[in-house]
Amino acid sequence: MMENEAPWQSHADIQRGDTKGIRVGIGVQFNNVTDRMKRTKFMRMRFVPMLLIVASMSPVAHAGAVLELLTTEYTQDPPIIGTVQISTEGRESRIEITSVSSNESGGMIYRSGKKEMIAMDHAAREYYVIDQATMDRMAAQVRSAMEQTQAALDAMSPEERALAEQMIQRSLSADAEAVVDYKLVASGKGDEIAGFECSYYDVVQEGRKIRDLCVTPWSEIAEGKQAAEAMMELADFFENMRKAFAGAGGLDAMDRQQEMFAYMEELGGYPVLSRDYDVNGRLESESRLQAARSENISASLFDPPPGYQQLELK
Q1: What is the pLDDT of residues 185-227, one digit of tens each?
Q2: Is the pTM of this model over 0.85?
Q3: CATH assignment at residue 300
Q4: What does the alpha-carbon distance between residue 177 and residue 74 come to, in Å, rounded to a whole number?
Q5: Is 298 strand, coil or helix?
Q6: Angle at 35 between CA 33 and CA 38, to 5 degrees
Q7: How far lies 284's CA from each of 78, 183, 194, in Å?
Q8: Is 23 contained in some domain?
Q9: How many CA atoms lie within 13 A of 221 on its CB side?
Q10: 129 pairs with which residues across the strands?
Q11: Does residue 128 contact residue 36 with C-beta atoms inside 8 Å?
Q12: Of 14, 176, 202, 214, which sits with the fewest C-beta atoms within 10 Å of its C-beta?
């Protein structure tokens, strides 16, 4: 390997136009940083709709709320079915996810007081703590990888550098941070989901319907606005994560999370049903509230399970 040559791309790769090796130096390094975090079932599975449903919970004094959600991914045959159980008490929340199709399970705890998220892998009996210090450390590694990328580009011939920059741009284009305008269009239709009356809205981007939402007004949820404020604190946490890794394309789930919270704010309510569609208008996925109940929740629920090993994100 030549001096200053990035470990993720050789000159020979560049000369033959191989984009696999250059899957963005910073992106590869970012993946190394976040690989363990992404391996947890929680980070791999869709969780945006789950977090939306958390915002619908009505806190009760000395009691918490438990909601059950059914998710379906139609991109596989047969579809992938998942269940979600969300527990909250005050500003603490815990989300448990199980794939009915594969028997995989994982979870997430958000502890407001410590401003930290705990991602759990139940099969491995392991968990990771993600707080501001963790995000700062990981972001520093991303910056270091970006510097390595620049050093490798500086060592190339003009022709190789031009080709490498084109390849990097193509690799990053799908993840580039960009604001895509959308419109929320009321369909005029209504429904009832899990006992909540809701109204349908289409989310339209670039002239195409990408999802629809069935939204219940906050006024229909006892202390719903207070619950929404608690969720905005969690939204801020995800926004910090997204910004920390913006140079490497960020985390797609974080971007989608912020979109969904924007819908909630604009519509003054929350979706009890959300459905995503592909470019051909085919249903890709669905998230549907199944049940909601109030019950006493022990504070220990917001701690990692006994016997689980804490691993460091490096």
Answers
A1: 999 999 999 888 999 999 999 999 999 999 988 777 644 555 5
A2: no
A3: 2.50.20.10
A4: 27
A5: coil
A6: 125
A7: 12, 20, 22
A8: yes
A9: 28
A10: 118
A11: yes
A12: 176
